[in-house]
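Lab channel / #folding
Pinned by the channel admin:
"Please post every new chain as: sequence first, then the structure tokens as a reply. Keep commentary short and put observations after the output so the thread stays searchable."

First post following the new format, from NK:
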Amino acid sequence: MAKKEKMHLDVKWAIRQRLEYIEIMACYSGLVSRSDVAEAFGLSDAAATKDLKLYNDLAPGNLIYKHAVFGFVPADGFQGLFADLSPARVLPMMAKNLAVAGGPYDNESIYGLSMDSLPLPTRLPGVEVLAQVTRAIRGHTKLQVQYRSLTDRDSLQQRILEPHALINTGQRWHVRAYNEETYDFRDFVLSRFTEATCLDELAESSEQYDDDWVETITVKLSPHPKLDKNKQESLLFDYGSQGSHTNTIEIIVRRALIGYLLQRLMVDTSEDQSMNPNAHQLVLLNRDEIEPFAAWVFT
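Reply from TO:
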């Protein structure tokens, strides 16, 4: 039996959850401390220390204690012995602010419900690239990357970014970062990073200077006017806006995310509302207010 499988059998589920969390933090934050474990699981400092000691007993040499940061950092040969460290597994956990994923039930539904999801292509980088990105975000440091752009410029040219957030659009992941080359904040598709190195140099920018990230705006939508009345009423009910005096669907969103929202909802963004109403069932009511922040999505 493989070493990792034997560990899963020997360690109780509740404890294994915490060991998985320790590995995920070490890999993607570059540091895991007693306070991290204690806060994530509501433990005392003594109990968290016990978990870290157990992990080091079961995976000797995987973590190294550094007095300067009062925590453990991954060793050069670090590998996941308890956790599935793949981005496909870890990113949804981060998005939902979960300490662990999965359970002792394998693929069996604990709610007795049959469910499935679309088999969409996986658009994610490798563990090494994602770990460098997340460490740069958490440590507020600069990130040197190679990025495959869809523009005419040299797509493999190195860039220096100052990332501060990850974005899940529902279709793919983006990195929100300050780009030193263009002197502005913009989004980078996470799966197009071919290389990434977290630098020792602290970032000069931060989230608070990214106006389109900090500021929100209300997107006002309505059923497409070319749909019949019954369909319009059904859509309002579908979006929880039935009974509204204005028949509008209002969504508060960061200005930086407006374009992704309109794409995901397949909103008719044409000026004359000429798109197929059966495919684009919603229209934008406050286009003049919204367009300056998402010009690329308008036709």
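NK: The CA atoms of residues 268 and 276 lie 8 Å apart.
TO: also worth noting, The chain has a mean pLDDT of 88.
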